[in-house]
Amino acid sequence: MPEVAVVKKRQERPQKEKNIITLKTLKAQKQLMFMSLPFLAYIILFSYVPAIGWVMAFQDFKPAKSFFNQQWVGFKHFQFLFSDSGFLRVLRNTLAMSFINLVLGFVTAILLALLLNEIKNALFKRTVQTISYLPHFLSWVIVAGLVSNALSTEDGIINILLLNLGLIKEPILWLGKGEYFWGIVGAAKVWKEVGWNTIIYLSAMSSIDPALYEAADIDGANRYHKMWHITLPGIKPTFVVLLIMSVGHILNAGFEVQYLLGNGLVVDWSETIDIFVLKYGISQFNFSLATAAGIFKTVVSVILIYTANTISKKIGEEQLI
Amino acid sequence: MKTTKWTKIEDVLFNTFNTIFMIMLVIITLYPFANTIAVSFNEGYDTIRGGIYLWPRKFTLQNYRAVFATGTIYHAFYISLMKTVLCTVLGVFFSTMLAYTLSRKEYVFRKMITTVLVITMYFSAGLIPGYLLIKYLGLLNNFWVYVIPTLISAFNVIVIRTYIGTLPESLVESAKIDGAGDFRIFLQIIFPLCKPVLATVALFIAVGAWNSWFDTFLYAPAKQSLSTIQYELMKLLASTTATNTDPALRAGALQGSEEISKAMVTPASIRAAITIVAATPILIVYPFLQKYFVIGLNVGSVKE
Q1: Could you say which DSSP state residue B303 is in?
Q2: pLDDT tens for each residue of B29-66
Q3: Which regions of chain A does DSSP assign to beta strands (E)?
Q4: Is A107 helix (H, G, I), strand (E, B) or coil?
Q5: Do residues A200 and A242 touch, judged by C-beta distance below 8 A?
Q6: What are phi and psi of A233, to 5 degrees?
Q7: Least confident of A127-136, A273-282, B287-296
């Protein structure tokens, strides 16, 4: 009887979670295998096979020679990296911009989400949200163009505003001064992503039990009390997950915005590890040094993610993996 | 009661401040576009005089005509479009197929494939080894370099798999009893039911494919026939930052006679026009798919 079979199968399922590979199951699942194993091969080829190239970091890799005829040099390239002032500078830039972006990103997104959450007029709220997501969908090429227009000394809106407000006496060459670069990148990232980053917090806020707010009302809590004691704790799990993910990406300050907005005048502030890798690797064919820098980045990221995840497990918060 | 009155005034103040803040946010977000649109419709040499804010002073279509006069932008637009369509269609289909198999709890390789997939979200071999792989695969200066390496993304697969997990299990089981194989179940039952989440994933893939320029920059920088619109814009951005501040050009423009200025465009005005051309497809698609973002992001944030 088909119906009976279905019911029986469902009851059995919880117990036999462990899947044992037998010839019979393999045969029964040949369609599933056919639909997934090619993708497994694809993922391994494009994401794991390149890691074989890591041996380049321990060789003086010459593209002309065959892979196994290269000269082995041990940790030479890593030693060079950590004594090279150029690399230490891009490391500093990467960490600084990542940190600025991390803090600015979280603070502005949570603030905007809190403020949006207080708007009771649904149409106004939706309109503001729709407009605030918009820049997220534009490429960094477009955004970098808009930013450099806005900061131009000729008719950039920022200089015009500051001049008219009497805050400065003559236009500032914003993109020509290294000290401003980190701030400009931070501001550009906020402009592009703040609306988008609020989505996840707003949906976390909307799933907070309304009874909590009602109870707080009865206890005489005002708006700020409710934000502080109900809304913020309500989005804490979301925040922690996002924080763990961001910590793992601390050496990924990005590449595009720094590359597009950077120029000869600010190179000491604008170059990140990714640009360093590109410069040595692709432009100067120093594959070994660039790969060593790439390995450093990946290894640090994986260690950071693992550590953040472990800590969060220990303190009983949400975890990622 | 004194306290409640205070709270009411505070509320009014808060709401007023909040509304003003939101309006300012909207202005700050929209102004750069409005300004770029105005510049793109303004005569190039007139723009250099400054003072174009929200509306063109001397309206012209010359900038757009100049952009499309050479075949370069047409072709780049076409390549961008082909790349976007192929990446989206293939990416959505293959990701859903993989996601379906990973949603089958009885599947013996489920755990293994999931682990291999999830690790790619945190681990990458790096730019140079990746570049060499592309080179060894013969994909340099090849159109397929835009499509093949981007087909499966761990994030998208997990989003879709989570969504499939919310569909009733009995759908698959009753189809199995009726004798349908997994491929058929996927194609005829699961795939059509995934529409809401697929719209989200398709949007993400399409926007990513349309917006990327780094792949052209890295894998086909000198091959004009593979250039994309974002890459053309990027080259222009790199070249005009210098000329923009050239005093000679500025002075010439200020003294330029009316007839000359009418026939001419400047790098800045061309750039504005290409920016609008590159942004338009996104601006057209985006309002229609907006309602799906939240579904997608929420599903994406749930991890097993």
Answers
A1: -
A2: 999 999 999 999 998 888 888 888 889 998 999 899 98
A3: 59-60, 71-72
A4: helix
A5: yes
A6: -60, -30
A7: B287-296
Task: Give the integer Cα–Cα distance in Å for B9 and B17.
Answer: 12
Q: Angle formed by the axes of helices A140-150 and A178-206, to 10°?
A: 120
**Coil/strand/helix, residue A147:** helix
For chain B, what's the residue count?
304
SS3 A83: helix
Nearest CA in chain A to B302: A320
- Work out whether the CA dihedral A77, A80, A82, A87 comes out positive or negative: negative
Q: Is B121 on the interface with A (CB under 8 A)?
A: no
Residue B216 · residue B229 · CB < 8 Å: no
Regarding beta strands A71-72 and A59-60, do their DSSP bridges make them parallel or antiparallel, or are they unpaired?
A: antiparallel
CA-based nearest distance B285→chain A, Å: 10
Nearest-neighbour CA in chain A from B178: distance (Å): 9
> Which residue from A50, A146, A255 is facing B125, i.e. has the nearest CB?
A50
> A59 pairs with which residues across the strands?
A72
Closest C-alpha to A76, from A289, A246, A224: A289
Instruction: Please indicate if any CB of chain A lies within 8 Å of the CB of B159.
Output: no
Instruction: Give strand pairing partners of B301.
Output: none
Close Cβ partners of A242 (under 8 Å, ≥ 6 residues apart): A106, A200
Round to whole Å and give the CA distance between A110 and A303: 27
pTM of the complete model: 0.86
Sorted by sequence, the CB contacts under 8 Å of residue B63 that are 6+ apart come out as: B40, B41, B44, B265, B269, B270, B272, B273
**Closest chain A residue to B99, measured at CA:** A36
Does residue B290 sit at the A interface (CB-CB below 8 Å)?
yes
HEC assignment per residue over B111-173: HHHHHHHHHCCCCCCCHHHHHHHHHHCCCCCCHHHHCHHHCCCHHHHHHHHHHHHCCCHHHHH
Structure tokens belonging to residue A284: 């100067």
| Euclidean distance between CA atoms A292 and A56, whole angstroms | 8
Nearest CB to A53: which of B98, B105, B132?
Answer: B132
Indicate the range of A107-111, A182-186, B99-103, B194-198 predicted with least confidence.
B194-198
Please indicate if any CB of chain A lies within 8 Å of the CB of B89: no
CB nearest to A128's CB, from B26, B51, B250: B26
Q: How many CB pairs under 8 A join A and B?
A: 250
Q: Check CB contact of B170 with chain A, cutoff 8 Å.
A: yes
Q: How far apart are CA A266 and CA A185, in angstroms?
A: 12
End-to-end alpha carbon distance in chain B = 51
Quick check: helix, strand or coil at residue A60? Answer: strand
User: Residue B58 and residue B67: Cα distance in Å, rounded?
Assistant: 18
Q: What is the DSSP letter of A134?
A: G
**Using the beta-carbon criterion (under 8 Å), do A134 and B286 form an inter-chain contact?**
yes
